[in-house]
Fold this sequence. Notes:
Largest sheet: none
Order of helices and strands: HHHHHHHHHH
Distance between the termini: 17 Å
Radius of gyration: 13 Å
Number of strands: 0
Strand content: under 5%
Oligomer: single chain
Structural class: mainly alpha
Amino acid sequence: MDDVAGRVAERAAENKCCTQVLVDLALEDVHRSDHLFVDAVAPLCLGLRSGLTCGALLGGLVAMAILSDRALDEVAIREFVEWFVDRFGAADCSAILQGDPFARLTRCPSIVGDVYREALVRSGHSEPELSGV
């Protein structure tokens, strides 16, 4: 298990959802902590709790902004969304999970890990640089 996968698993074991995991990882990697913010993004999980836009996509964008220490421009957002759709086949949680209630446990952790790795790269970081933080 690589560093990102292990960190995702730790947070999932704390009952953090996809968006919360991504935000928490990014905050940790920039040496900040904000439990209120991590809690505040929970409604974005599971496609806004209604199967709409995937919480990992939304959390990935927030994580990328945190890691970049700036707001994301329209081009960066569009390119990240395009990458996400190309990688996972859809932007909607319901389409990604395909009605499988266990997919949250089996598929989502790897999606969250892939999304975080991509956010690291796109924000100018690399995973080894931030390991052990």
